[in-house]
């Protein structure tokens, strides 16, 4: 909470927009930092034990982990392994400290035992996930460790490699891809396997075409079994067969959850992760007031929400009162809770169409369609991303909108609720009225024709409305 207060103050004093933006990679962003404040932001972060190391460039980025380590002993163990993997794969360079923190420059050549002299061909993303919740969207990432437990205790991981969502409009050499199962490994081999996957991608990845440099393309080029065998050789192990696991959802459980040590955890829905004082809903002030009295931590989720973690029973009522008084616990429908957008305009230089600023009013209209067809409490996993780089993870949604130009999107359908199927393009380069007309017709059919418990994405595939993407390298663009 000391960290949060420092973040809040910097946003208020040193950014143009005055907001804190939670991201779907469990980080936060400041927008509108003047050049003179770039070094001070790094120094502020360092002063409270935070940094921006490995948030860009061709290396392993921050490791995502199922959000709250205090929810159970299994969550705590998985979180510790996420930290170990992150620390093991971090770059060893001193350049960050020398440039931003004014530490003394040492006239030596940085040695990078994992990244080497060339670093990686492209950025690399890693997750640790605890079934049955796929809240971190593992299939969007290069390397994924799926926690396997026995009697509530972590014993090892299933490894999945080669997920990734970024494409380029019209470039059929690019495609979104789900991660492939490699096998099971006991805990003691985790770091060796993580290093082996990264170094294999470092040495085998495409360095002549950045559009085809991610791990997903390397897997397709050399073959899954060849890549897997090289990882086994480098790690000095043989993967065991994949152990059973199942995902049932990927949303956050909004509201109070009781965890270990009799502590409570409050997950707050933050629409699109944007923390700001809105008229009648002073979210930023409310969180600051909570931070001033809270004795635990704040945890960012991969759905752009915030967990007030480790609340003792004695503080629960006070924190809930503050949250309610500041609009942090306003009731929202399931559709809004399951909708997400990237930042896009006005602060992302890659933006092609609106995303964050478009989604709230668009969700109103989708909620009206659900109401019209008699299913107001249903939800469809819906994502909007402002460009084909895919930060909004639209390529794992049941309804995915991918920005093509101002006011125009490619509409993708046929993903599923648990995030294990890539949606196919249904209509190209269409505006909001056409999108809503299509959704009105299809949601109407879903409401009448669906089977018990059948999600919208599964229905569109079963009903023959859209063909499922089964082999992205070959059928994504068909």
TrEMBL record:
Looking at the record's lineage, which domain of life comes first? Bacteria
Residue spans crossing the bilayer: none
Residues in domain Nitrite/Sulfite reductase ferredoxin-like? 2-47, 261-320
Gene3D superfamilies associated with the record: Sulfite Reductase Hemoprotein, domain 1 (3.30.413.10)
- Cofactor entry: [4Fe-4S] cluster; siroheme
Pathway involvement of the protein, from the record: Sulfur metabolism; hydrogen sulfide biosynthesis; hydrogen sulfide from sulfite (NADPH route): step 1/1
Tell me which residues make up the Nitrite/sulphite reductase 4Fe-4S domain: 81-238
Keywords on record = 4Fe-4S, Amino-acid biosynthesis, Cysteine biosynthesis, Heme, Iron, Iron-sulfur, Metal-binding, NADP, Oxidoreductase
Q: What cellular component GO annotations does this protein have?
A: sulfite reductase complex (NADPH)
Q: Name one GO molecular function term.
A: metal ion binding
Keyword NADP on entry: yes
Record note on quaternary structure = Alpha(8)-beta(8). The alpha component is a flavoprotein, the beta component is a hemoprotein.
Q: What does this protein do?
A: Component of the sulfite reductase complex that catalyzes the 6-electron reduction of sulfite to sulfide. This is one of several activities required for the biosynthesis of L-cysteine from sulfate.
Instruction: Indicate what this protein is called per its UniProt record.
Output: assimilatory sulfite reductase (NADPH)
Q: Which gene encodes it?
A: cysI
């Amino acid at each position: 909470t000391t960290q949060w207060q420092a973040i809040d103050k910097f946003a208020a004093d040193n950014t143009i927009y005055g907001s804190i933006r939670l991201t779907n990679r469990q980080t936060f962003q400041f927008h509108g930092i003047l050049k003179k404040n770039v070094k001070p932001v790094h120094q502020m972060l360092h002063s409270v034990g935070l940094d921006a190391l490995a948030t860009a460039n061709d290396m392993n980025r921050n490791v995502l982990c199922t959000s709250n380590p205090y929810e159970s002993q299994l969550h705590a163990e998985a979180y510790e392994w996420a930290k170990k993997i992150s620390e093991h794969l971090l770059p060893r360079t001193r350049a960050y400290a020398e440039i931003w923190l004014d530490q003394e420059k040492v006239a030596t050549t940085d040695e990078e035992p994992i990244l080497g002299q060339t670093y990686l061909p492209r950025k690399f993303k890693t997750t640790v996930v605890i079934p049955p919740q796929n809240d971190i969207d593992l299939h969007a990432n290069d390397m994924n460790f799926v926690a396997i437990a026995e009697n509530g205790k972590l014993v090892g991981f299933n490894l999945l490699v080669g997920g990734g969502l970024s494409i380029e409009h019209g470039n059929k050499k690019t495609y979104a891809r789900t991660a492939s199962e490699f096998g099971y490994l006991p805990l003691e081999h985790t770091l060796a396997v993580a290093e082996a996957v990264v170094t294999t991608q470092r040495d085998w990845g495409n360095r002549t075409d950045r559009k085809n440099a991610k791990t997903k393309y390397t897997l397709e080029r050399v073959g899954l079994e060849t890549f897997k065998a090289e990882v086994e050789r480098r790690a000095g192990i043989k993967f065991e067969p994949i152990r059973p696991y199942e995902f049932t959802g990927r949303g956050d459980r909004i509201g109070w959850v009781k965890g270990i040590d009799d502590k409570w955890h409050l997950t707050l829905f933050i629409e699109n992760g944007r923390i700001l004082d809105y008229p009648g809903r002073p979210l930023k002030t409310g969180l600051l007031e909570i931070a001033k009295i809270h004795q635990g931590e704040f945890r960012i989720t991969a759905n752009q929400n915030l967990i007030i973690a480790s609340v003792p029973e004695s503080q629960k009522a006070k924190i809930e009162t503050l949250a309610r008084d500041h609009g942090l616990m306003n009731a929202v429908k399931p559709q809004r809770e399951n909708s997400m957008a990237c930042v896009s305009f006005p602060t992302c230089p890659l933006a092609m169409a609106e995303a964050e600023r478009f989604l709230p009013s668009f969700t109103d209209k989708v909620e009206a369609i659900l109401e019209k067809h008699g299913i107001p409490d249903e939800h469809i996993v819906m994502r909007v991303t402002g460009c084909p780089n895919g930060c909004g993870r639209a390529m794992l949604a049941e309804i995915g909108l991918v920005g093509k130009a101002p006011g125009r999107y490619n509409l993708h359908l046929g993903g599923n609720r648990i995030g294990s199927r890539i949606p196919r393009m249904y209509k190209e380069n269409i505006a909001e009225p056409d999108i809503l007309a299509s959704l009105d017709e299809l949601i109407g059919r879903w409401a009448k024709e669906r089977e018990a418990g059948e999600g919208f994405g599964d229905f569109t595939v079963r009903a023959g409305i859209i063909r499922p993407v089964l082999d992205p390298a070959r059928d994504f663009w068909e």
